[in-house]
């Protein structure tokens, strides 16, 4: 069995990817420092796959611990690097934390890969690198816009670091630019666990429906879009997880592989905030208490992916629509709140 290291593997996207990897015949070792996840997720993964992944609690920023880890696990074939901090607002308040946790730890990990001859690497990037697109849907050739937050900047810098490293070494890397991941595993055994007040739309919706929040604020209905609210490409986290399996397969086969490749991972379909609210009400039967408020500073008006490249070169395509994703998000929220 090929062994894959998943950093941040107890986090939201990482945990779903661990499940997908195990279900596709990979063995997995997870590194996580539990800074934004809980150890119970390991139990959730194990309940789904019936196979406990190996787990080491460590911080990727700790060079010594990282080195000892690679001494212990000699047979790693590929790395999927999720571990990072991801709160945009926090990154504005504390940019150094973001440059250390997202950029420095990538460098340490690449140094270990170089030392150990590990050549396959997948990086978690984001559609945030595109900023406000000039054309829609957006493909991978679109220009990178100046980042509006340190978080977004870390994704741009990390892609450049990986690209520079690939230029001078026998290293195969893929950067997956995620659009907006939503939903949870259909077992409701793993899902998203935001700390504090959710910044993202779907967790705020499910928490409002569950009575944890009083009211959802819809940030603006005066944008130049059909219903005036912003448009995003919401992708089911299970589809996103499967894209990683396709990407690691592609790297290991290294068939026609260019050294550094970038793929959009979205559905190709845009949905507005008000459409998401309506779809949630329809699939769950729960009426949402929401009100239109002012625009949120820094929001992109509309962005959705051209996924042709991932469809053709990874043989991957999103299977689930937004309604399936929203239903799974609600099932997970009910489970977390004991509402079932
Ligand atoms: P998450 O916070 O749920 O998962 C990240 C995991 O990494 C957590 O379990 C956390 O404890 C761990 N971690 C953080 N720093 C670490 C460190 N120094 N050492 C060890 N473990 C560490 O986030 P997520 O939503 O699963 O995102 C995963 C990746 O995808 C991140 O790189 C994020 O920037 C990227 N991404 C996320 C989104 C999104 O909307 N969720 C969109 C685009 C890109
Ligand atoms: C989606 C839409 C909001 C909350 C952020 C990061 C980005 C990326 C994904 C990682 C927007 C609206 C939201 C609410 C609302 N992460 N909204 N009320 O803005 O696409 O991107 O997450 O890389 O870097 O910036 O996602 O879920 O925050 O918002 O009306 O309470 O929902 O205005 O139009 P976004 P989001």
Automatic annotation (TrEMBL):
<feature type="domain" description="NAD(P)-binding">
    <location>
        <begin position="5"/>
        <end position="326"/>
    </location>
</feature>
<keyword id="KW-0413">Isomerase</keyword>
<dbReference type="Pfam" id="PF16363">
    <property type="entry name" value="GDP_Man_Dehyd"/>
</dbReference>
<dbReference type="InterPro" id="IPR036291">
    <property type="entry name" value="NAD(P)-bd_dom_sf"/>
</dbReference>
<dbReference type="InterPro" id="IPR005886">
    <property type="entry name" value="UDP_G4E"/>
</dbReference>
<comment type="similarity">
    <text>Belongs to the NAD(P)-dependent epimerase/dehydratase family.</text>
</comment>
<protein>
    <recommendedName>
        <fullName>UDP-glucose 4-epimerase</fullName>
        <ecNumber>5.1.3.2</ecNumber>
    </recommendedName>
</protein>
<dbReference type="InterPro" id="IPR016040">
    <property type="entry name" value="NAD(P)-bd_dom"/>
</dbReference>
<comment type="pathway">
    <text>Carbohydrate metabolism; galactose metabolism.</text>
</comment>
<comment type="subunit">
    <text>Homodimer.</text>
</comment>
<dbReference type="GO" id="GO:0006012">
    <property type="term" value="P:galactose metabolic process"/>
</dbReference>
<dbReference type="GO" id="GO:0003978">
    <property type="term" value="F:UDP-glucose 4-epimerase activity"/>
</dbReference>
<keyword id="KW-0119">Carbohydrate metabolism</keyword>
<dbReference type="GO" id="GO:0005829">
    <property type="term" value="C:cytosol"/>
</dbReference>
<keyword id="KW-0520">NAD</keyword>
């Amino acid at each position: 069995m090929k062994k894959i290291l998943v950093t941040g593997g107890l986090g939201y996207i990482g945990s779903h990817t661990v499940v997908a990897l195990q279900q596709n015949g990979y063995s997995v070792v997870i590194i996580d420092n539990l800074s934004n996840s809980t150890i119970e997720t390991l139990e959730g993964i194990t309940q789904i796959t019936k196979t406990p992944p190996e787990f080491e609690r460590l911080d990727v920023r700790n060079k010594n611990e990282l080195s000892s880890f690679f001494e212990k696990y000699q047979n790693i074939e590929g790395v999927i690097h999720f571990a990072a901090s991801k709160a945009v607002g926090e990154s504005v308040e504390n940019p150094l934390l973001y440059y250390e946790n997202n950029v420095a730890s990538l460098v340490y990990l690449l140094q270990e890969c170089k030392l150990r001859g590990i050549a396959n690497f997948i990086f978690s990037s984001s559609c945030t690198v595109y900023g406000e697109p000039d054309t829609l849907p957006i493909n991978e050739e679109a220009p990178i816009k100046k980042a509006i937050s340190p978080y977004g900047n870390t994704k741009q810098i990390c892609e450049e670091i990986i690209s520079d490293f690939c230029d001078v070494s026998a290293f195969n890397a893929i950067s997956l630019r995620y659009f907006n991941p939503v939903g949870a595993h259909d077992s409701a055994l793993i899902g998203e666990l935001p700390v504090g007040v959710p910044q993202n739309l779907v967790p705020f919706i499910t928490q409002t429906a569950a009575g944890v929040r009083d009211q959802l604020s819809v940030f603006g209905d005066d944008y130049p879009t059909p219903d005036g609210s912003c448009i995003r490409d919401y992708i089911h986290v299970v589809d996103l997880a499967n894209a990683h399996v396709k990407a690691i397969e592609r790297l290991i086969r290294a068939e026609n592989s260019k050294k550094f490749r970038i793929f959009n991972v979205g559905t190709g379909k845009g949905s507005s905030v008000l459409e998401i609210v309506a779809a949630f009400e329809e699939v769950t039967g729960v009426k949402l208490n929401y009100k239109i408020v002012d625009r949120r500073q820094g929001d992109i008006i509309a962005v959705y992916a051209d996924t042709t490249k991932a469809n053709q070169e990874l043989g991957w395509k999103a299977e689930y629509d937004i309604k399936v994703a929203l239903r799974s998000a609600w099932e997970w929220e009910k489970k977390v709140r004991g509402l079932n």
